[in-house]
Amino acid sequence: MDERVPRDFETLRATILDRRETLPKRIAQIAAYALDNPDDIAFGTAASIAASAGVQPSTLIRFAQQLGFDGFTSLQQVFRERLRERNSSYDERLQALRAKADAGAGHRAIFDGFVAAASTSLNDISRTLDEAHLEDAISLLAKAETIYVLAKRRSYPVASYIAYALGKLKIRNQLIESAAGLNAEMVAFATPADAVIAISFSPYAPATIEEARTIAEQGVPIVAITDSSFSPLAQFAKVWFEVAEADFAGFRSLSATMALAMALTVGVGEKRRSTSRKRKA
């Protein structure tokens, strides 16, 4: 296999995103499907994947060849390897870290690994953040009567922090969560005068995507934090941010996402105060 051919999922994902603007329409369609549904690509048949993606089976072969693979089966191996790595239990990941510590590096090496991953994530977002998008998002959120915050699973700590910080800033908000299963009813209260911050990363939480879809259909503007222009959240959002988090030993950082969340939250507070001062002047 050519050395330039992506050998792991993260490299493959980065390659697809780098070429997304130049891919032919049908190949871009299967590329988007592949990043949104990597598990299906890993173990589906060419016929079943093509049917789900709405393309011809031959498009899968052209997609693989476009990325440098000799055929679809070779490409599929990258998706299968990703699934094997993702399915490793947290105990296995901890055992791997413990082995590094026992090998003489000590637990400081584990700490340094997480710091390095966090630093990489922060450096990447600092370099790539679109300032105009940040201003647009803050302006949109600052005008909202209520800011709804939507996230599940790994993204939930970020949503929880946003809700906490907005409350401290005396900005009306609603974290969409309900132990009683009333999420749908909470979502139904959102109107076009409100706004939503939605956060989800691959593999995207189905509940987050469905609730974001419902909210968008109600005409409520969404600011999304996600990891790809192919993310289903991106298609619903008025403004969206692409955040690529680095990982260490399979544990992915949330450093860049949290930094962006803090900037949005504090920015909204400052924007509202500035607007209030102008009205009083």
List keywords for this structure.
two-stranded antiparallel sheet; about 60% helix; about 10% strand; about 280 residues; single chain; Rossmann fold; alpha/beta; 14 helices; globular; five-stranded parallel sheet; 3 domains
Written account of the structure:
- Pfam families: HTH_6, SIS.
- Residues 10-86 form the HTH rpiR-type domain.
- This is MurR/RpiR family transcriptional regulator.
- Keywords: DNA-binding, Transcription, Transcription regulation.
- GO terms for molecular function: carbohydrate derivative binding; DNA binding; DNA-binding transcription factor activity.
- By secondary structure, the chain is of the alpha/beta class.
- It has 3 domains: 9-87, Orthogonal Bundle (Arc Repressor Mutant, subunit A); 90-119, no CATH class; 129-280, Rossmann fold.
- The chain is 62% helix and 9% strand.
- The protein has 14 helices and 7 strands.
- The chain has a 5-stranded parallel sheet with strand order 2-1-3-4-5, sandwiched between helices. A two-stranded antiparallel sheet has the order 6-7.
- Strand 3, helix 12 and strand 4 (222-226) form a beta-alpha-beta unit.
